[in-house]
Structures are given as C-alpha cells and as structure tokens.
C-alpha cells in the first residue's frame, strides 16, 4: 500500500473505512479465489484531502500511473493504446453502502486508436463502436455534467464530441489519462452531490467519511450473445425467500440493468446461453453468504461465457424480507440473537406494521397498470411525475406517488417524499427498486411505456407486494403486531437486552409523563429538559428514534408507545452509539 492507493489483489484486506465497501468487496472476493477483474483503489483519505484543497493531493497522479502499470501487467493489455487496449471502470465506493448515489464511468481508455484496436482484436466493429459510444454518453453526463441525449452508433466519435460540445460548451480531453483524472475528480465530487447528501441525512451517515475510487480492468458484457450482465441476490430481497434471485441482460453492460432503462430477464435465463457461468454464480453466491454471514447483493458480468464477480455487498432488503431473513438465519445458526436484532431497523418494523389493503379492496378496484413487485407495502396518493414537485407537495402535507419512466439518483429527494414509486421501465434490481427497498417505500417497476406517467393528477393506490396500480384511494386496515411471529420473537429477544422497557399506551399507568400534553413535548431540543428525573414517558418526540436516544441518555426506564419492537431497537442502537463514543473517548485519552 502506498500513500493514497492500494492494489486489490487479495493479499491484504485494509479497513473498509479506508478503501470503501466496493474496494473491500473486490479484495475479499479475490482472497476467496473468485474470478475478479484486477483493480486498485484510491483511498477515502485522498478524497478527504481533495475535498479540503479542491485538488489531487501530492503524489496521487504518480500513484495512479503506477496502478495503471500494475493493471497492464496483470492483464497483458495497455491503457490508451493498441494492439491489446486496456479499458477500465472508475467507480465510487463509500464505506457504508449508498446504492446509486455516487458516480461511475465505464469504458475509460477508449478512443479512436483503441476502438480500432478492439475491432481488430475481437473482429466485431459493432462491439467496439458500441463501447466507444457508451463511454461518450457516461463521460458527458458524469464528468461534464451535461445531457447530450442518446448518441447513435451510426455516428462517428467526432460527431459525438460535437454533440457533447454543443450541449456543454466543453471538449473531451484528447489524452485518455487526462480523461481518467477528470473521472476520478468527478467521483470525489459526487460525494458532495445533492442526492448523496440527502441520502446520508436520511440514513444518518456521516458527511466526513468520503468515498474511495475503484479503478478496475473492464470486462465486457456487451461483447457477444455469450456475454451479459446482471445483479443477483443470494436470497430474495423482497420477501426473504431463501432462494437465489436476480436479473440478467444478454449482450449488455451493468449500467443497462441498474439504470432501469432496460427491463432485464429473470436470472434463470442465464442457463439458456451461459449455463456454466450460471452455475459458477450460484456457487460463488453461496460462498459469499457464508463468508459474510449476510444476504449478498452481487454485481457480475459474463464475457464470452466466463463469469466475473464485480462487487458483493450486504443486500438492501424490503421490511418483510428483513424480518424473515433475520429469523431464518437465526434458525440456521448463521447469526446469533444480538446480530439478528441489527438486521432489521426501527423504520422497517414500522413499515411492516403500516396499514394494509382491507380484505376484498383490490378485487373490487380498477387495475390501472401492472408491473414488477419491487418493494412491498401500500402507498396511496396523487400521481406526480417530477421529483421536485413531489418534494414540494409532500412538504405541504399532500400524499404523493412518484411516477417516472425510470428513476435516476437525481430523483432521490422525490422518492423520499413519496408514499410509493412506480416506473414504466426497469426491473426489480433497477435503481428505483433498490433505493425504494432501502427507504422502505413501496415500489412497482416495469409497468410499460406511457402507463404510469399518464396517470398524473389521479389518486391511486399502489400495492408493492402484488405489483398493482389501482384506481382511487382504497380502504386499508391495521395489522396486529402480535400476529406476526417474527415480530413477536424479536421483541422477546430485544426485551432481554434493551436499556428500556416498552409498554403499550393502554397499559400505561397514570404516573406516566404524556409528552403530547406537555408544551414543547414534540420538540427534540426540549426533550432532555422535560425528561430530567422522569422514569416513564411516552408520546410527543418519543415517536422519533432520536427522541428514544435522548430518553436512553436521560435515564428513562420505561417508554410508552408502539410498535414496541421499533422502540426497543431504537433504544438498543442508541445504547450502542453511546458505548462506541465512550470507547473512542477512552482510547483518545490514553
């Protein structure tokens, strides 16, 4: 490892805070002997220095050059030149997974010379041209921050450059190395993008962590009919079923799947064209789940029948899946009780116990559209097709449904504000689906062109579990938390270790402090003062996880509220945070 970079050859496994989740994943998979394209990583420390100075730290350019030389030695290819050109991807990699929030540029190193060299090497000018076009589209969008529209393979690189210049007023650097440096800068800067900041705020992730940048040799899913790309989960992230789940797109690159621009096929279709790669993928997924003790979200590419693992991380999962997976893994002995309590969040518990459609409501309703059941739950509201509008109307107290042809990271604020998200294209591993599951928002994808956006202004009900878009606001009913065995089981476990006791409102004694009846009781900044010397309290700001944390710090013994498990989990997280802070303080004083 040098000052700002390290090679991800599996010989070492640096701290995830330093090399990011993606870099750690690549190194881990290489150490396990899985087939991984060679890569090196620029550390989060370099990002922190770049954010401070707005420039590369001293020595980074030389280390990038050294890393490229190492990739050339590993692959037998040459960056920016023929006869066997090396192309690389430039990917963000935060320590804490932030799917779709930061930037990636693929096919870096393609230029006129290398397109010709690729054509001569593989004998397929259409593949080389398609790869060159893809680079121009991503570079203009990510690095030059402009929308040059969809470029055509029938045009020349000069035509593409002129289109981009007309849209952005900027030229692409001629030197592939200068292009690479610009892409690294763009990835660093994406850490401070509006969408990334909103995501971190929503998930209480520190703004100080920064992102690593993984520079990895490209493999090509768009090379032939025996090539493709996909995303797979070692268990179903929607319902928790313990069987592999995913999607695959023949003759495509990864961006085609995650962007939602194309609707891929089920994972099983790999068997028809690349059966050996399919079997290797299932075997690798099993190994990764055992090694990491959690459900894996795996990005992969098949190039001419050979499988390459690109990334594996803990999967974002819908609330139903989080509950089932936690209890299943507990039964299997994969995790212990303490770990099981960390595998479901307070918000996911609340989502599980949110209203459901009343019996018979769907059967009597008009079905407006059907799609992929991408994230379960019920969302009722007025359809809007613009994320800014969704955020504005939701802030005014209106329930809205965000409908888009497909979502992008720039739609995050609208997705957070919406009661549900519906798209016309994309599948259950698209950006809309993955982010909705992370947010606990109902989502239906792939409803078909000109379907859901045509519903703008209408009130609809979205059933994310069934993939249905239904007319009007339908009747809902409250589920009974005592009827969900998984909730009951985890509640019992949490009760044994939680720093507070939680009772239902109907069981509260008259001595309990009701913050709903106290002036300022709903304000977090007033809570420490109001809870001073109080043993039992409920209502007001205690409905918020931050309020629960304040109660734990204040020494409150019993909280009145529901769902009980959500409050217990929030209290346990607050206790863990306090213990971590105390440990850091002690270590700092030594």
Automatic annotation (TrEMBL):
**Record keywords, A-Z:** Kinase, Pyruvate, Transferase
PANTHER family associated with the record = PHOSPHOENOLPYRUVATE DIKINASE-RELATED, PYRUVATE, PHOSPHATE DIKINASE 1, CHLOROPLASTIC
One Pfam family of this chain: PPDK_N
Record Gene3D superfamilies: ATP-grasp fold, A domain, ATP-grasp fold, B domain, Phosphohistidine domain, Pyruvate Phosphate Dikinase, domain 2
Q: Does the keyword Transferase apply?
A: yes
InterPro entries associated with the record: ATP_grasp_subdomain_1 (IPR013815), PEP-util_enz_mobile_dom (IPR008279), PEP_util_AS (IPR018274), Phosphohistidine_dom_sf (IPR036637), PPDK_AMP/ATP-bd (IPR002192), Pyruvate_phosphate_dikinase (IPR010121)
User: Pyruvate phosphate dikinase AMP/ATP-binding domain spans which residues?
Assistant: 54-265
Domain PEP-utilising enzyme mobile positions: 398-467
Instruction: Give the protein's recorded name.
Output: Pyruvate phosphate dikinase
Q: Name one GO molecular function term.
A: pyruvate, phosphate dikinase activity
Q: Where does this protein come from, organism-wise?
A: Pseudooceanicola atlanticus
Q: Is the keyword Transferase in the record?
A: yes
